[in-house]
Design goal:
- By secondary structure, the protein is of the alpha+beta class.
- The chain is built from 23 helices and 25 strands.
- Strands 2, 3, 4, 5, 10, 18 and 19 form a 7-stranded mixed beta sheet that branches.
- Helix 11 runs antiparallel to helix 23, helix 14 packs across helix 16 and helix 16 packs across helix 19.
- The longest helix has 36 residues.
- It is elongated, with a radius of gyration of 36 Å.
Length: 632
């Protein structure tokens, strides 16, 4: 039998239990109070910062890319407002849960889907990927209504690069494209917010100043991540504007002069080295590349045998043919081997002493007694066969480098080809065979191992026109660091001298002037000009005249196309333009190239060129979403 406790004992036990409960409650309240103290006092700064981070979102503000204008202020590359569709995989979750619904709102092609799948497959989940680069206004409106259904999917406003004249300046301006992994490495941490960078042309060469500096803004958001207000801002700095030396009217006249021919041409102001117009044909539309070119369009460009993506002026080149004769003639004078009046007998065929093989002149019966001026005007091979043989290949190569051959012109484009000046040293580096005397002879007429670009020919021609001043060729003439800032000229290095003997230069100039007069090889195309021009024709033969190559020349590989060439300047007494033209499969005798050069000179000197209507509206400064800049 259990013994019953007395009332006094039960009361004492109750008091002990109550005291214990009280102590436990006090300890619990003390611990809770200490925890609250830690949260509210000791850790206040850290949690306040996290709270602010949840409430405020730091957003990069992309600058407007700098404008590119021609010498008269016409816009050649501008920015237009657009929206893109961005996805952050970490926030959006698996595409199967939201992509079908999104495709009912926004039109997405297979390339867009592949881009998204690639981002999920191999990219960091936190990195935002652009799924569709250009969203139509109707799609923007539809998405805005249902935006809440797609966390991690955002419509981002931006300024889209536009090239109003399309293919006309493709190989000069180039294009921008979406940033890839290699670009991110170059841009570094501070430039990771950029979506586009220059890929080719001036856009690439001047990318670091054209793209500007990124700004930032603090945006207050709600629990869904939707922006409510901007509470702080560091403005972006718009990119530098560039004014080019290119004249848009002359550029169009140059393209029109080529007609259906492929080739390249450069027009230079010999007094400054400014490039007035420059084309490589065929060209392409750079707008196709801005937001990612389609597979179909890219395949059409890359399978075209004329290679429209290939910049013939910068990356190309070939034997200069007879266009190099004025410079070899000048080398003969300055080296002391010839005087302007020294004569050589042209019988139609030249022989190296002790050899039976003959090297032909353009006329079967020869040209008779020939001095320097006649050798240029009538393009007499024998004069240059003998001169090259007397000079020797090492001395000839030396003088050609003085005139800028085998050297970069300095043009503000990436990847310029240096070309090839024939020499035993070059052959030793590229062949196991020795140098043969016959190779020296044909080097004298611009054949053999020669490789000269149209830029090099234009630069050397401009040097002769400017009484011996070899200048750096350039496209950008001024910059403006801000819309209200003044234009500042881009400094250029002083010219180099190719000859210090004005009499020698004058003899070469007179020979080039005679080329466009009766008896000269360019008289036909230049007949009737109201100004006096100087020039030199040339043909770089790549297939035999007796060969069976026929059909559409545009379908021939570039290696099989001979070139019709012409260099010249005008007016001869006070030159304001120097021109070099190379026409692929342009026919022997170079009349095609000379005719194109005539049209270019007429356009510049006489104003005979089509006028361009401005395709863009007047410029204004705008702020568009998280992008600041000027829109045309």
């Amino acid at each position: 039998r259990r013994q019953l406790k007395s009332p006094a004992a039960e009361a004492a036990q109750f008091r002990r239990r109550a005291l214990l409960g009280f102590v436990l409650v006090v300890l619990a309240l003390g611990g809770l109070g200490g925890w609250y103290y830690k949260l509210q006092v000791l850790d206040h700064a850290g949690y306040a910062l996290q709270s602010e981070a949840n409430r405020l979102k730091l957003q990069p503000v992309l600058p407007g890319r700098g404008l590119i204008l021609d010498r008269k202020g016409r816009v050649l590359a501008d920015n237009v407002p657009a929206y893109r569709l961005d996805v952050t995989p970490l926030d959006a979750g698996p595409p199967a849960g939201w992509l079908p619904a999104l495709r009912r709102i926004v039109v997405l092609d297979e390339a867009d889907i592949e881009r998204l799948e690639e981002a999920y497959r191999s990219g960091p989940r936190f990195r935002t990927v652009t799924m569709k680069a250009r969203v139509e206004p109707e799609e923007v409106a539809r998405f805005a209504v249902d935006r809440w259904r797609f966390p991690g999917v955002e419509l981002e406003p931006y300024l889209n690069r536009r090239y109003p004249y399309g293919p006309l300046l493709a190989h000069v301006i180039g294009y921008v494209g979406r940033v890839d992994e290699d670009d991110l490495k170059q841009l570094g941490e501070g430039g990771s917010a950029f979506t586009h960078v220059g890929k080719t042309g001036l856009e690439r060469y001047y990318d670091d100043i054209l793209r500007g500096r990124i700004g930032y803004e603090q945006v207050e958001t709600n629990v869904e991540g939707r922006a409510l207000a901007t509470v702080g801002r560091v403005p972006a700095v718009a990119g530098t504007d560039l004014k080019l030396s290119i004249d848009l009217d002359l550029q169009r006249a140059m393209v029109a002069a080529f007609g259906d021919h492929d080739g390249s041409a450069v027009a230079v102001d010999p007094r400054s080295g400014e490039i007035l117009a420059m084309v490589s044909l065929p060209a392409y539309d750079p707008n196709l590349f801005v937001n990612g070119i389609s597979h179909k369009d890219y395949e059409a460009l890359t399978t075209n045998p004329s290679r429209p993506l290939f910049n013939r002026n910068v990356l190309g080149g070939g034997p200069p043919g007879s266009t190099v004769k004025p410079f070899i003639g000048l080398a003969g004078l300055d080296s002391g081997l010839r005087t302007p009046e020294d004569r050589v007998l042209s019988t139609g065929e030249f022989h190296i002493p002790g050899q039976s093989r003959g090297y032909r002149d353009s006329h079967a019966g020869g040209h008779g007694w020939t001095d320097l001026r006649k050798s240029i005007a009538a393009s007499v091979n024998t004069y240059y066969y003998k001169l090259a043989l007397d000079m020797g290949i090492e001395r000839l190569a030396h003088w050609m480098h003085v005139y800028g051959f085998g050297e970069r012109s300095g043009i503000d484009l990436v990847g310029e080809n240096t070309g090839i000046v024939p020499s035993p040293e070059w052959k030793r580096q590229n062949s196991r065979e020795p140098w043969y005397t016959g190779e020296t002879v044909i080097a004298g007429i611009g054949q053999g191992f020669w490789k000269a670009t149209t830029l090099q020919l234009a630069r050397a021609t401009a040097a002769v026109a400017d009484d011996g001043n070899l200048r750096r060729l350039h496209l950008a003439r001024a910059r403006r660091d801000g819309y209200e800032a003044p234009w500042r000229a881009i400094p250029q290095p002083p010219p180099e001298r190719i000859s210090d003997n004005p009499d020698h230069l004058r003899a070469v100039q007179e020979g080039m002037e005679m080329t466009t007069q009766p008896g000269g090889t360019a008289f036909g195309p230049m007949r009737g000009t109201p100004y006096r021009a100087a020039g030199k024709t040339g043909t770089a033969q790549r297939v035999s005249r007796k060969g069976a190559v026929s059909g559409d020349p545009h379908q021939l590989p570039l290696a099989l196309r001979h070139q019709a060439l012409f260099i010249g300047y005008a007016p001869a007494d006070d030159p304001t333009i120097a021109v070099a033209v190379a026409v692929e499969h342009g026919g022997f005798g170079s009349s095609t190239a000379a005719s194109i050069a005539r049209a270019i000179m007429d356009a510049w000197i006489l104003g005979k060129s089509p006028q361009l209507a401005a395709p863009a509206s007047a410029g204004e400064t705008v702020s568009f979403g998280n992008v600041e800049g000027r829109v045309r």
